[in-house]
Design a protein that fits this description.
By secondary structure, the protein is an alpha/beta fold. 47% of the residues lie in helices and 13% in strands. The longest helix is centred in the middle third of the chain and has 24 residues.
């Protein structure tokens, strides 16, 4: 059975510089309370298996993790769960050239330079909590999930891609992936530690977080971290699975390690992130990195 899907653009806007129009699925009453994502069903349709719901990030040019990004991500998950049964898999991708650049560095710099440092640190703690809560929810989402990496992945964008059950790298992609937080003087929120250890293993996770290891495409494929394919291949991943059984097995696979992680002192990791963010050394490193980036953009421009 092919279900016709009609799309319309909701032109309601808000004042934030990160906002974009949202797309609604009229035939299925989806009207997400967010501007940074759109969801749709691929034009290719099947009666069996259920079609995947594709979520496109369409935030700022690099899909950086602003506060509104996290709010919108959770709103999107709420709306999908309220409208669609658990049989529909999820594919997370980007409508921009960049999959995600991770933490919103401009926002963090604003906090570092805020006049009221006490209030800025409180806001930073809230930001880290939003980060952890969103990543936890996506990682444990009781649906089949895949990420389709069709553009550069920088810093925190890497654990976001890894948080999906399966990761598919666009056949046309040749861009390396790297986490460089330590180079900037930053630590990692607790959920990054957990997701990288789960997805990469302890050795590769250590090299990635401590040394800023750069992954080339060949290594990602060779180690089974990602597989090469297309957006359609993401949907085909779940072609022969029973969704209910899939979710039960997924929960069992993740439950032991997740319970162990909850017993760890993640609050300490989050406090370290905030402490290092406001240290003079980190401020200087981030300032230099931002200056270099702006200089590079001016040369290209």
């Amino acid at each position: 059975t092919i279900i016709p899907v009609t799309m319309s653009i909701n032109l309601f806007r808000r004042s934030s510089r990160f906002c974009r129009p949202i797309f609604t699925l009229n035939s299925n009453r989806i009207s997400p309370q967010c501007h940074l994502f759109r969801s749709y069903w691929p034009l290719r349709t099947h009666s069996n298996p259920p079609r995947a719901i594709v979520i496109e990030m369409q935030s700022n040019k690099v899909n950086a993790f602003s506060r509104e990004f996290f709010n919108s991500f959770n709103s999107m998950m709420d709306e999908i769960d309220s409208v669609h049964d658990k049989e529909r898999p999820i594919v997370l991708t980007s409508s921009h050239r960049v999959f995600s650049a991770g933490l919103d560095v401009n926002y963090l710099r604003e906090l570092q330079n805020a006049e009221n440092q006490s209030e800025a640190k409180r806001e930073a703690r809230e930001y880290v909590k939003m980060f952890n809560d969103t990543f936890e929810r996506f990682f444990l989402w009781d649906r089949p999930t895949a990420s389709f990496v069709d553009g550069p992945v920088v810093a925190g964008g890497f654990p976001l891609a890894l948080a999906a059950d399966f990761r598919v790298l666009d056949k046309k992609s040749h861009v390396p992936i790297r986490l460089h937080a330590v180079n900037l003087g930053l630590c990692f929120p607790a959920l990054v530690h957990f997701i990288l250890r789960e997805s990469l293993g302890s050795v590769l996770a250590s090299e990635t977080m401590l040394l800023g290891k750069e992954f080339q495409k060949e290594e990602l494929l060779r180690n089974g971290i990602m597989r090469e394919g297309t957006l359609e291949d993401c949907e085909q991943l779940f072609a022969n699975v029973d969704p209910a059984a899939y979710v039960s097995v997924k929960k069992a696979l993740k439950e032991t390690s997740w319970r162990r992680f909850q017993q760890e002192n993640g609050d300490v990791l989050d406090r370290q992130f905030v402490e290092h963010l406001f240290s003079e050394s980190t401020k200087q490193r981030m300032e230099k990195a931002l200056t270099r980036r702006l200089g590079t953009e001016e040369q290209r421009g």
